[in-house]
Amino acid sequence: MNERSAPAFSATSANSQCFNYQAPPIAPCAPTGRGFVTIYEAGRIVWQGTEGEEPAEFRQEELQL
Length: 65
What we know:
Layout: E1 36-41, E2 44-50, H1 60-63
Antiparallel strand pairs: 1-2
């Protein structure tokens, strides 16, 4: 090492901040309340699809149980 040169030095700081960064907006997480439905009759699948789209003959509101 040359006597005239300063020793190499580097340090990190826990308080450093980057002002050239913009966080992405947080997407809203709203549950839809619609799940996937499988309807069985006699052990066989007769219909599969999204809740609310089932055929009228399988809707419990209309069966008056």
